[in-house]
Design a protein that fits this description.
With 269 residues, the chain is of the alpha+beta class. The protein folds into two domains: 1-119, Pseudouridine synthase; 121-269, Pseudouridine synthase (2-Layer Sandwich), CATH 3.30.2350. The chain contains five helices and 15 strands. The protein has helices at 56-63, 105-116, 193-200, 214-219, 253-261; strands at 2-7, 22-30, 34-39, 74-75, 81-82, 96-102, 121-129, 136-140, 143-146, 153-154, 159-164, 167-176, 179-186, 230-238, 244-248. Strands 1, 2, 3, 6, 7, 8, 12, 13, 14 and 15 form a ten-stranded mixed sheet that branches. It is globular and about 50 Å long.
């Protein structure tokens, strides 16, 4: 594994950064077309046009300047154009784990089509409040914007505007001391989908300050987390040569410590 660094600031609610504030980006796989990294929690993938903090895109441009024109920019309501070199998909700021970056336009278009065709296989691991009774199952609930908070999405009553299909499969890996450790496989790719779906069935993700009820955030142990306990564990894509490539992102330190706390030391390796 190769590590490359980018200076960044600490974000409230994210895992503490090293004292030097020197963010390291572990590279899990790289060839001439694709770069797959283990994104640290607390790092934004690309700018929203408002904040000035360092993002993954800054790291990409610094380390791979030739990728500047790869991908598709987005245009904000005020006309601002945001370049997103190589960005095919995103994970939330405080979600850690595997992320695919395209190194050229041919690769970008090929991987984008895989996401559109729903042939990319993604697995997430998460800690939830509450002990799941089911060993496996499916959450099939449409997602839309919340009427009460512009930051939120919901799979419950109170959807504003369009509802979009959203399906998440899950498997319970362990339950102990009022927590569940689960594997989630999103069939669709809606914003905040896993966080929203588990909130909708009353098993919110640990330390999810946006979706977990205040009573849970205050009354329960957070297992040492300072950010929501969600990790993009693995992804499988098809490379340009037709080979299927599966890449797994090792757990960050907060996940390892939480696994030990609930008696799953073997999984913390």
């Amino acid at each position: 594994m190769v590590e490359r660094s980018l200076y960044t600031r600490r974000v409230r609610g994210s895992s503490p950064l090293p004292p030097t504030h020197f963010m390291k980006i572990p590279i899990l796989y790289e060839d001439n077309d694709v770069l797959i990294i283990n994104k640290p929690a607390g790092l934004v993938v690309h700018s929203d046009g408002r904040t000035k903090e360092k993002t993954l895109v800054d790291w990409i441009l610094k380390k791979y300047p030739k990728m500047k024109k790869v991908g598709e920019p987005i245009v904000l309501n005020d006309g601002t154009i945001l370049n997103r070199p190589g960005i095919v998909h995103r994970i939330d700021r405080d979600t850690s784990g595997v992320l695919v970056i395209a190194k050229n336009q041919k690769s970008f278009l090929a991987i984008k089509k895989q996401f559109q065709d729903k042939t990319v296989h993604k697995i997430y691991h998460a800690f939830l409040y509450g002990e799941f009774k089911e060993t496996r199952g499916m959450i099939d609930r449409p997602i839309g914007r919340s009427r009460t908070d512009f930051r939120k999405w919901t799979a419950q009553r109170g959807i504003r505007g369009e509802e979009r299909e959203a399906v998440t499969y899950f498997k319970t890996l362990a339950t102990k001391n009022g927590f569940s450790f689960i594997e989630a496989i999103p069939k669709t790719g809606r914003t905040h989908q896993i966080r929203v779906h588990f909130r909708a069935i009353d098993y919110p993700i640990v330390m999810d300050e946006l979706y977990a009820p205040t009573s849970m955030l205050k009354a329960r142990s957070q297992l040492g987390f300072e950010r929501h306990a969600l990790h993009a564990r693995s992804i499988e894509i098809e490379l340009l040569n037709g080979e299927k490539k599966e890449v797994t992102a090792p757990y960050p330190e907060d996940f390892k410590k939480a696994l030990v706390k609930i008696g799953l030391k073997k999984l913390a390796k």
